[in-house]
Amino acid sequence: MNKVKELPGEAIVAAAQAPSIKNSFLAYAQRVRGGDMGALPAVLGLLVLCAVFAIARPSFLTAINFANLFTQGAAITVIAMGLVFVLLLGEIDLSAGYASGVCAAVLAVTLINTGLPWYVCMLAAILTGVVIGTVLGTLVAKVGIPSFVVTLAAFLAFQGLVLVLVREGTNISIRDDIVNAIANRNLPPWLGWALYALCVAIYAAVQLRRARSRTKRGLVADPLSLIAFRVGMLALFAGLAVAALNLERSRNPALVSLTGVPIVVPVILVLLVFWTLVLRRTGFGRHLYAVGGNTEAARRAGIPVDRIKISAFVICSSMAAVGGIVAASRASSVDPNTGGSSVLLYAVGAAVIGGTSLFGGKGRVLDAVLGGAVVAVIENGMGLMGYGASVKYLVTGSVLLLAAGVDALARKRAAAAGLR
Amino acid sequence: MNKVKELPGEAIVAAAQAPSIKNSFLAYAQRVRGGDMGALPAVLGLLVLCAVFAIARPSFLTAINFANLFTQGAAITVIAMGLVFVLLLGEIDLSAGYASGVCAAVLAVTLINTGLPWYVCMLAAILTGVVIGTVLGTLVAKVGIPSFVVTLAAFLAFQGLVLVLVREGTNISIRDDIVNAIANRNLPPWLGWALYALCVAIYAAVQLRRARSRTKRGLVADPLSLIAFRVGMLALFAGLAVAALNLERSRNPALVSLTGVPIVVPVILVLLVFWTLVLRRTGFGRHLYAVGGNTEAARRAGIPVDRIKISAFVICSSMAAVGGIVAASRASSVDPNTGGSSVLLYAVGAAVIGGTSLFGGKGRVLDAVLGGAVVAVIENGMGLMGYGASVKYLVTGSVLLLAAGVDALARKRAAAAGLR
Amino acid sequence: GDSGQTTSTSTSSATEAAKAGKVGVILPDSKSSARWETADRKYLEEAFKAAGVQYDIQNAQNDKTAFQTIADQMITNGATVLMIVNLDSGTGKTVIDKAKSQGVATIDYDRLTLGGGAAYYVSFDNTKVGTLQGEGLSKCLTDKKADKPIVAYLNGSPTDNNATLFKAGYDGVLKPKFDGGEYVKGPEQSVPEWDNTQAGTLFEQMLTEQPKIAGVLAANDGLGNAAITVLKKNKLNGKVPVTGQDATVQGLQNILSGDQCMTVYKAVKKEADAAAKLAVALAKGEKPTASSSVKDPESGQDVPAELMEPQAIYFDNVKDVVADGYVTKEELCTGDFAAKCTEAGIS
Amino acid sequence: MTPLLEVRGIDKSFGPVKVLHNVEFAAYPGEVTALVGDNGAGKSTLVKCIGGIYPIDGGQILFDGKEVHVHSPRDAGELGIEIVYQDLALCDNLDIVQNMFLGRERKHGILLDEDSMEELAEKTLSGLSVRTVKSIRQQVSSLSGGQRQTVAIAKAVLWNSKVVILDEPTAALGVAQTAQVLELVRRLADTGLAVVLISHNMNDVFAVSDRIAALYLGRMAAQVKTSDLTHAQVVELITSGRSGELGLKNGVTP
Amino acid sequence: MTPLLEVRGIDKSFGPVKVLHNVEFAAYPGEVTALVGDNGAGKSTLVKCIGGIYPIDGGQILFDGKEVHVHSPRDAGELGIEIVYQDLALCDNLDIVQNMFLGRERKHGILLDEDSMEELAEKTLSGLSVRTVKSIRQQVSSLSGGQRQTVAIAKAVLWNSKVVILDEPTAALGVAQTAQVLELVRRLADTGLAVVLISHNMNDVFAVSDRIAALYLGRMAAQVKTSDLTHAQVVELITSGRSGELGLKNGVTP
Ligand SMILES: Nc1ncnc2c1ncn2[C@@H]1O[C@H](COP(=O)(O)OP(=O)(O)OP(=O)(O)O)[C@@H](O)[C@H]1O
Ligand SMILES: Nc1ncnc2c1ncn2[C@@H]1O[C@H](COP(=O)(O)OP(=O)(O)OP(=O)(O)O)[C@@H](O)[C@H]1O
Ligand SMILES: [Mg+2]
Ligand SMILES: [Mg+2]
Q: Which residues line ligand 1 (CB under 6 A)?
């Protein structure tokens, strides 16, 4: 997306003139220095955080902890992904947390009471999310009530709904093995490697095809060396991760073996790739950005603004449903607190920390994943530190501020250069 | 503020040509039909709500319930007033709830442990608010971390701080009579009437002076008849309210007498008038609107944007401190939940329901009071209905939606006329 | 206090401790009751330190996700015994299952994880707590010679299973009286998250709707205090009996001043000591035996258990709590309460 | 010749302020109609009413002789009316190509066809002699005033529409760019489109227009062939609403 | 005569894109200096650098012969530099009077003196022949393009500043209003101020300016007395950066 096209004129963009791997690096360095940093600040914040925890608690760097990280952060990350769509419009969904609770409760209740197979129950849960999103979106887009108020009302109502569904506060256990596997089981090691190979191959193929097609049209394309480099980096880091996750991490290998990539990892990856495609490569995604950036301009361009808004809420609530399913799976149960307490704030926080703007028009699904990682690492690391209740709150707040501060200071340099 | 000044030109503004009471009414009716409704939608929503509850539960209309309403809504309203300042800038303060908890805890701890007089302890609490606001504001304005993240971190840290202050979760009783009086005692009836007379007199004087000064300068001024009408309406409604609050509302008048305006009422009135003056009639207030409306334009006009932002956070946190004091007084105790759970969402909700925009640049302190009233009426009415937990959540959500829906539909008509 | 470094090693028997393994404790929250952070943590720490066992005590802050994360982290950190106060049975069971699969021994502390199959269960009988509250209220109403009194309920959090158990307890005592026409059932509300501020508004509205309320069954001292504040405002304090639980300083003071009728004292130290004893034994690789057992209603299995008896506290036996060291005289007998303390025989 | 676009007796008020009074206006295929008027006369409001941005209070809009109801910009677009608004209405968070194809993206199946859009955008822009745009993948927020205007114009002429309305399109343009746009306007009309040009520059108006319509304080003072008017007469119509026999009588439409 | 405002060797890049190359420019008291250049030449960027909106990468700004550091618009205001930006920067949520006095409100003690501000605003605006503004208590969001521009100009000339810079001030103005603004520009210079006028309209430039400075692709091609130049020469400087002896040699400043 960042390819630079020279039109007649004099000012110089170093890299675009002769795209080569060296020039591409120079251009990237220049972009970063000039302030266009993409995901860099969030990644930086994440690295600082990991370093701090690794020094404080060596067990932070063990294979088992690495695997835990993914399952711990999964639900929040998935909900945050959905929230990105609503935030892109400059709206908010306060009810996403409890919506995930409602959908989880629907899953649990249908599993227990109807005896239908797991996939039907999951579908019911997601369908519940779709209905919720449609109602919320319609109230916002058609009736014109501010989303903060609509979703605050929903936030209250869904608390009640969860209570009704779980019969006034009882706790429903989920006994379905497949549902419970999502957040508690791992892929067999060979399957992890197979998926890894597939991902790398697809990535390489897409990159190559794109470059070929652009070259054919006479547009500036990435040089082969650069593509090779990117694919190589992906292969290296993803390979390291898969290898780490395939290590034996049981504390009692004799008793039970614990290896492989947690099942949530491919789930999150698929969602990430899918929604990124939707946002970046479909007309719907483009229109979402347009409405968020300048609603009036979008309307004048003939974009059905109301429909876009409703769709965003539908996506948000359905992703909340998926998040609810993951949470239910992880807890193997649903109770009235599912999706409550800090879930919503953490999810919105994850999206914002990743770089999504609350004013709309700016954000990526990847932001939610990066921000979700920050939140998960903080929770995970703080869990290792063993502080008392009050100190833990204090330290968690400070650590969050630290991670966001690194990010903010990095971005501030960009703003100073006149790039906003 | 709505005076219309004719410049040479042809289009006609009915009222301004010959300001008289009749023309003023016509102009108001036209403004409302044209969509410029001011507080009307919120008041309308409030009336609908009251009617619904009064029909469902006759005790809703009793004197004692009327008096309860004020003390029940006071803390949220005060916190919402402060939030308006931050929202006006397009920022948010998620920590306002727990900040009020921290300040309340400071009050309780100093009262218990130091034995200092109540006013010193209150000052300490408010000073804590000022410090909190300064820190938050500086992080947002100078370091450039998004306010959502800063205040989310503060939200966490302050939870820890409250716990530390109340010694890991104990509930501290407040035994100071004056502090407890704020939210639990009433003015003697004669003082209520005296204050009433004073208010009406001041209002009349200000209106008259203003009209005289404008006439002298040759600007269009309100006609005397209109001023008389306004003052009359104020005198009538305020008089009715004072009279109602001065009714005997004890269950056992023989045993104990319970009459008079609750002390929180003048407290809220003073805060309302003071902050409205600051927003509408000082340079600071003007600059606040400017920064919220268009930060870049404000910066170019030489407004010290950072300082304005910090001030807004300071005001917000100090008002949270006042809200915390009111809450502590009402509960006669402070515990780790003070300012927690739904306080923040209700406070932001109050401001937004009243008509304050989350995008900045639009809002009044009066909004917070009206929205606070909506929230208080809902809580009060729902308390009378005696539903179980789940039904209560569901109904509360729906009622909130109803009140906001009336408002939204009224405003939508305005937008349709091309006025946004 | 100084809960900054809880992962401490005993100095006396470091080598033995290293062999002995490590105990992880997860407390549920710090807001529904002050006991977890002020009492349980303290007593458990003391017991573990005395036994020279490594330990790690954390609080899940009423967050299920955090609860599971902490459990993961404790196992990662090398805990060999896991002692949990579950937030709900589902997450509790997941944690216990995970721990068992890793060869980590488990203890249910204070709350039984239904169907969880923990090795031991140490607790107060929560239904019994409710029964004591119900009986206490009846006693106070009888003392006040109330005729067909209207009794209002301020239940605990609708999402807290313990609140359900308490309610079962006091319903067991009071329901027959309602049915028999001796008492009249008044309004009832569950207080979300045990929030005292909301409890105040809820009770104020109950009183507006039903001004003749003559007795309040409040599920703990905080809720009781919220009701008392409203009663005070209406000058009804002392005339309407209010119950409580936890024997907090605030609750005891309210009892001394006559505003509260009773509270339920749970000798946390006994509970903590019993649990710590089991945990230390497990950490050292022993297989301790429990004094009794409890039937898990869900799995039908018998869980070895240590059960403590809660105690009802009225004006006359407030001194027991002080004598136990649960509350100190300095905290309790401040200012105006000094005289009352003397009256109640606290020295 | 029937006009391609005609409005009859349009009224429009904002709250208590009446901005358009019974306005009549027509645009003919193959012709450039210049719409002139003082600041605040109501030109942009009239255009926004035609474009479906503001609902009209009264009157009719006729397209190709048949009455149509334009409730939203979408309706206008479907009729084949393309408008460059004075307040340019670009999405600052999107780049030049994305803005130019907004609402009418080219697709490969369901995925966007970025490459062909980029190619076409580049071609269109270079035809408008924009020489200083560094990259057409640049966000429009970083463009200069004139560059933004060019993007908006390029966006509007990219489509095969029947009516093109340009609200002060050359206000921010340099000498060369203005010439290009005027030439483009003429070329569009010559291919049979009805073009409406709003401008304060009399030279430009006389250079390209076939007809001139003058708005005065929300009333249509006159709509006359350009060849029948002089510079001075148009200025008089703009500033006082009448000029000799032409214009408003006693402030109302004759 | 020493220039009142002078910039020396200013460089400015946005990320990898260099927009100003070693620009020299001076404005003299009592004179109108016209700054011309093609779209995207860098005129507005230069003005924003002077106004403290963008930090400069290199070079100096001199005021009254002394080097000054302008880090924010506040600094520029304190020096006595008043600027009307091309992107008008008005607060849409405030009314006309509030915008005109923004940052410099008149006060009675600590309270605002609304009445005197209203009076003064009205006087200033009517001097700019705005006849269609319905109320000066109207929000600026409801103004027409030309009305907004007039408010921005009125705002800038309300103060006693030493340098006034106007970035395309007449772009959206009607015939009469343009004449008024040009006259105002001349009047300001005649009272001893240094006025800088950016415009694409050669007639306007020649009508009021004493000196012309031409920017070409971020480089200053020439700064010459208006009387020494012809229309054609200026257009040549704008479009190709040189004209005969004048202008850039081989694309760099001579
Ligand atoms: N949303 C609105 N609310 C109230 N008044 C408005 C609104 N929009 C425009 N007006 C008023 O309507 C009148 C006509 O505005 P319009 O924008 O149509 O003028 P114009 O002819 O395009 O002027 P210009 O040449 O300056 O662009 C102006 O007086 C303006 O103040
Ligand atoms: N924030 C920015 N980021 C990147 N490039 C920018 C930014 N602002 C301006 N530019 C580029 O700098 C160049 C000069 O812009 P500038 O606005 O100064 O032009 P100008 O001379 O004022 O043109 P116009 O006559 O169209 O107003 C343009 O090519 C523009 O694209
Ligand atoms: Mg216009
Ligand atoms: Mg410019």
A: B 418-419; D 14, 17, 19, 37, 39-45, 86; E 132, 142-147, 172
